[in-house]
Specification:
The chain is built from 2 helices and no strands. It is an all-alpha fold and about 80 residues long. The relative contact order is 0.08.
């Protein structure tokens, strides 16, 4: 299934969306709803800041993974 998502600033009362050829002569569903502009934007992070975070926090990733797996042990 191909989906088209577009965010537009509406001026007036109509919107035009160009569709790809594979949607020609097909039945489609069109849903339009307003975006709540009061929703806070996600903060952008620089991923390089997280490099070596386990070492800085003295966390052993394999041990943490083992703890998570052990949580699911049910003794059946």
């Amino acid at each position: 299934m191909n989906a088209i998502r577009t965010i537009r600033d509406i001026e007036g009362n109509s919107v035009t969306v160009a569709l790809p050829d594979e949607m020609n002569h097909k039945r489609v569903e069109i849903i339009i709803f307003p975006i709540d502009d009061t929703t806070p934007q996600r903060q952008q992070h620089n991923l390089i800041e997280f490099a070596g975070i386990y070492k800085k926090l003295e966390i052993e990733p394999s041990r943490e993974a083992e703890k998570l797996r052990d949580e699911w042990e049910r003794g059946i």
